[in-house]
Amino acid sequence: MNTVFRSIALLLGLLALPVLAADEPALLSGQTLYLPVYSHVYHGDPDRDGKPAQTLVSTHVSIRNTDPRLAIRLVSARYYDTVGKLVRSYVTAPVAIPPLGTHEIFVPRTDTAGGSGANFLIAWTAESPANAPIVEALHADIREARTLMFITTGQPIRTR
Q1: Would you give the DSSP letter of residue 69?
Q2: Alpha carbon 44 to chain centroid distance?
Q3: 60: buried, middle or exposed (CB in 10 Å: 19+, 13-18, 0-12)?
Q4: Sign of CA pseudo-dihedral 102, 151, 142, 48
Q5: What's the pLDDT tens digit per position in 56-75?
Q6: What percent of the chain has pLDDT over 90?
Q7: Can you say whether residue 30 is alpha, beta or left, with left for phi > 0 and alpha for psi between -120 and 50 degrees?
Q8: How far apart, in whole angstroms, are the C-alpha atoms of residue 66 and residue 72?
Q9: Are 105 and 29 in contact (CB under 8 A)?
Q10: What b-and-e string marks burial along 98-137, b requiring 16 or more CB atoms within 10 Å of the CB?
């Protein structure tokens, strides 16, 4: 009887292994991330010309290396406008981001080139498989009477 219980416990333990392994994030040697950003947001009701009000926002992009042991290399950070046209490249040469370090990019509120449908394509690599970075953009318009803040998050994409 004792052997049956041990066998069942062993079987249950083996069945749980894939679940535990699935909880671990995959280690990667690099990827490209799509990060939606905004140079302005629309709000309110349309005016007589049929256009809604706009509020300009600044964008603070944060590329955070989540690996505590390995550096990653930021290869490119390309900024595109609403129609998909490249506005500018923010990384002209690869940048090393140390373990648990962060690389930041700032798009000022007065830079309206991107539009409401702007985005970044951010590419990174690592010499050895590493944790993927967290890539976010904090958008803000801070004034005395009101504050507008929101975050967008990068998503991995396949590139051709």
Answers
A1: S
A2: 28
A3: middle
A4: positive
A5: 999 999 999 999 999 999 99
A6: 74
A7: left
A8: 9
A9: no
A10: eeeeebebebebebeebeeebbbbbbbebeeebbbbebeb
